[in-house]
């Protein structure tokens, strides 16, 4: 009986050790995936900014010399159209000041959007953007933009917001861009979380 009791206690100690190990493994697994889920959005956003993936214009600081930012003479004109929308949760009006501009790759351009707070209280908004068609986004470079910056408008206040951009001259060398003559830059304003 004494050896059976010792054997039973060893069995219980081994079972406790396995349970503790299992809990530590599961806990580590949960902590790891919670960390990955928090990092997913910033990592995805970084991927999109660097590559132009999913219609996100490149916003990474790229060193371009003055020679590469000259308009490509003889290249067909590209029509850049602008679009502005507002979430139903945001009591603003938002629209482009001009519907479109015409540029060639390498040419810089400036466009303005106007936002107006229709409400009787200050509201903070934040804009996201997209480029259509998606495959042209990798060549759409914004030098200055209001996107992802919180914008506060007081009651009945309006503001002009500039976008300074260029189409990378490499656009002209990409055979997949041969059929693209129109590119649309679209912004959507949302109410800032917690504001």
UniProtKB/TrEMBL annotation:
<dbReference type="GO" id="GO:0005743">
    <property type="term" value="C:mitochondrial inner membrane"/>
</dbReference>
<keyword id="KW-0812">Transmembrane</keyword>
<comment type="function">
    <text>Exerts its effect at some terminal stage of cytochrome c oxidase synthesis, probably by being involved in the insertion of the copper B into subunit I.</text>
</comment>
<feature type="transmembrane region" description="Helical">
    <location>
        <begin position="23"/>
        <end position="44"/>
    </location>
</feature>
<keyword id="KW-0472">Membrane</keyword>
<dbReference type="GO" id="GO:0005507">
    <property type="term" value="F:copper ion binding"/>
</dbReference>
<dbReference type="InterPro" id="IPR023471">
    <property type="entry name" value="CtaG/Cox11_dom_sf"/>
</dbReference>
<dbReference type="InterPro" id="IPR007533">
    <property type="entry name" value="Cyt_c_oxidase_assmbl_CtaG"/>
</dbReference>
<protein>
    <submittedName>
        <fullName>Cytochrome c oxidase assembly protein cox11, mitochondrial</fullName>
    </submittedName>
</protein>
<keyword id="KW-1133">Transmembrane helix</keyword>
<dbReference type="Pfam" id="PF04442">
    <property type="entry name" value="CtaG_Cox11"/>
</dbReference>
């Amino acid at each position: 009986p004494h050896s059976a009791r010792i054997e039973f206690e060893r069995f219980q100690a081994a079972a406790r050790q396995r349970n503790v190990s299992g809990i530590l493994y599961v806990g580590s697994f949960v902590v790891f995936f919670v960390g990955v889920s928090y990092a997913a959005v910033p990592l995805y956003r970084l991927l999109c900014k660097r590559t132009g993936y999913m219609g996100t214009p490149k916003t990474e600081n790229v060193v371009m010399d003055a020679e590469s930012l000259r308009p490509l003479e003889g290249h067909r004109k590209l029509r850049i159209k602008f679009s502005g929308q507002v979430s139903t949760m945001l009591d603003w009006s938002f629209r482009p000041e001009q519907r479109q501009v015409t540029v060639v790759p390498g040419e810089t351009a400036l466009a303005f959007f106007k936002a107006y707070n229709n409400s009787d209280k200050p509201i903070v908004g934040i804009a996201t953007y997209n480029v259509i068609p998606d495959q042209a986004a990798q060549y759409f470079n914004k030098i200055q933009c209001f996107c992802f910056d919180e914008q506060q408008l007081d009651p009945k206040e309006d503001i002009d917001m500039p976008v300074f951009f260029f189409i990378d001259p490499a656009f002209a060398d990409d055979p997949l861009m041969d059929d693209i003559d129109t590119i649309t830059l679209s912004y959507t304003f949302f109410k800032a979380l917690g504001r």
